[in-house]
Structures are given as structure tokens and as C-alpha cells.
């Protein structure tokens, strides 16, 4: 089972917007609206930021948004803040024998 | 608001087994699934398997079939993950996380993580 493909790193300045992509196949990202995104600060557990492609859990800032086109899902963070600096992981349901797959992670640096 | 609290760090010898616990408090346990996800040092996340406590049904990632056993005790709202035939590559932080039962979808919240070190 191959991991979903994410860029290793992205960066942006405070106040800017950035987008992190997550590319899979028609067996996972492209076939289902079960894509979620997680934020992980060093030494901490991941935190759910987006679920089912574009839904925000209660308490998550509306600066975080998700979308999907074809086999690629995207996480956009607007109005970048220093505390957004973290690793971000996407995840998707998959129709394979292993029903969940993660992306390799993207390190976001706020310049 | 549900919280997941995991057992403490473990150091194990190659070839042995480890059993990590995950206790839920402050919310519903049985009507959700509990997944286990691991993260090797400096690496990404890897889904290992999950259990639906109310049904007692577990399913596992193909990679870990035959080596991992996930169980749950509804009376104590605790899930367990046991990994056998440990090797150095199993050194990782192991997380439990709650999710929906119908499909392996989102994971929220997560436990604090349990570091398992496999070393001779």
C-alpha cells in the first residue's frame, strides 16, 4: 500500500496563504470523500484539522480549509501565523485490504 | 469531551511482545472505533488496525496481519494493542485514536502516544 504523496516542505510568511497537496489514486482520494488532515507539532500527538475533504471540527480556526479535485486533495491555510508551523499529514480511506493510508507529511515553515 | 490516555513507555528485546493500553474517559467509548497508528522516529504516520468495541470486531493493516492483536474491554473503556515478534524497525511512538465505526475515516482525538523502543 503506497502512501499518499505530499510535498516534503512548504513555507510562507505571516499573513500569507499556503496550500499543501495530497495526491492519491481513484482507489483512495479520488474515489471517496473521506480525506482528513492532521497538524502535528514536534513531540505532540496529531490533531484533526479537516475531515471528509472540507469539514472543520469544532474549535479549528476557519483559516484552515480543505478541497479535492480528482485524485488530489488540498489543505489551504490562510493568514499564516507562527503557531501554524508544524507537520501536516493527509489521510484517506482506501478500498484496498488496508483501509486507511496516510501521506508522507509536509513540514510547514512560517518565515 | 473524550480523552484517550495511553500506558507508559516500554523497552523491549527483539523477538518479544509489547502490549499498549488506551483508556477513554469523559465520553462514549463503545459506539466508536479505536484505531492504532504508529510513527517511527522522524517518519510519517502508519495505520495498523482498529477495533469496534461494541462489536468486538478488529481489522488490521495487511503489513501487520499475524503480528498485531487489537482488543477492547468495554467495562473499563480500554483498548489494547499487542505487537509480537518485535524487531528494531518497530521502534516507534504508538498512538490510539477514536474514529467512526462505519468506515475508517477521521481520527479524533488521539492519545498522547507511547514510545516503544526495541533494542538488544
Describe the structure.
The complex is a heterodimer of chains A (111) and B (120). Chain A is mostly beta strands and 111 residues long. Chain A is built from no helices and nine strands. In chain A, strands 1, 3, 4, 7, 8 and 9 form a six-stranded mixed β-sheet that branches. Chain A has a three-stranded antiparallel β-sheet with strand order 2-6-5, with no helix packed on it. The model of chain A has no long low-confidence stretch (mean pLDDT 96). Chain B has 120 residues and is an all-beta fold. In chain B, 0% of the residues lie in helices and 49% in strands. Chain B has a six-stranded mixed β-sheet with strand order 2-10-9-4-5-6, with no helix packed on it. Chain B is globular and about 40 Å long. The termini of chain B are far apart. The interface between A and B is medium-sized, with 25 and 23 residues.
Tell me, briefly, the overall form of chain A: globular
Strand order of the largest sheet of chain B: 2-10-9-4-5-6
Number of helices of chain A: 0
The major pleated sheet of chain A works out as:
6 strands, mixed
What is the number of E strands of chain B?
10
List the quaternary state of the chains: heterodimer
Mean pLDDT of chain B: 95
Relevant terms:
heterodimer; A: 111 residues; mainly beta; six-stranded mixed β-sheet; 0% helix; 43% strand; globular; B: mainly beta
Summarize the structure.
Chain A is built from no helices and nine strands. Chain A is mainly beta and 111 residues long. In chain A, strand 7 and strand 8 (100-102) form a beta hairpin.
Which SSEs are present, and which pair or pack?
The complex is a heterodimer of chains A (111) and B (120).
Chain A: E1 9-12, E2 18-23, E3 35-40, E4 47-50, E5 64-69, E6 72-77, E7 86-93, E8 100-102, E9 106-110
Parallel strand pairs in A: 1-9
Antiparallel strand pairs in A: 2-6, 3-4, 3-7, 5-6, 7-8, 7-9
Chain B: E1 3-6, E2 10-12, E3 18-25, E4 33-39, E5 45-52, E6 57-60, E7 68-73, E8 78-83, E9 92-99, E10 114-118
Amino acid at each position: 500500500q503506497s502512501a499518499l504523496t505530499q510535498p516534503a516542505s512548504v513555507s510562507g510568511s505571516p499573513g500569507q496563504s499556503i496550500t499543501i497537496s495530497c495526491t492519491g489514486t481513484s482507489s483512495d482520494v479520488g474515489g471517496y470523500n473521506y480525506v482528513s488532515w492532521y497538524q502535528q507539532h514536534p513531540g505532540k500527538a496529531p490533531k484533526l484539522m479537516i475531515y471528509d475533504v472540507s469539514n472543520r471540527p469544532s474549535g479549528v480556526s476557519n483559516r484552515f480549509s480543505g478541497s479535492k479535485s480528482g485524485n488530489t486533495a488540498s489543505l489551504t491555510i490562510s493568514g499564516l501565523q507562527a503557531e501554524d508551523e508544524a507537520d501536516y499529514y493527509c489521510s484517506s480511506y482506501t478500498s484496498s485490504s488496508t483501509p486507511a493510508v496516510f501521506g508522507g507529511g509536509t513540514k510547514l515553515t512560517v518565515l | 469531551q473524550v480523552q484517550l490516555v495511553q500506558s507508559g513507555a516500554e523497552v523491549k528485546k527483539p523477538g518479544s511482545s509489547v502490549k499498549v493500553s488506551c483508556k477513554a474517559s469523559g465520553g462514549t467509548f463503545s459506539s466508536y472505533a479505536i484505531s492504532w497508528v504508529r510513527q517511527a522516529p522522524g517518519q510519517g504516520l502508519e495505520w495498523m488496525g482498529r477495533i469496534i468495541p461494541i462489536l468486538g470486531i478488529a481489522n488490521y493493516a495487511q503489513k501487520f496481519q499475524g503480528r498485531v492483536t487489537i482488543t477492547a474491554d468495554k467495562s473499563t473503556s480500554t483498548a489494547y494493542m499487542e505487537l509480537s515478534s518485535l524487531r528494531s524497525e518497530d521502534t516507534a511512538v504508538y498512538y490510539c485514536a477514536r474514529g467512526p465505526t462505519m468506515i475508517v475515516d477521521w481520527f479524533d482525538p488521539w492519545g498522547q502516544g507511547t514510545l516503544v523502543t526495541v533494542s538488544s
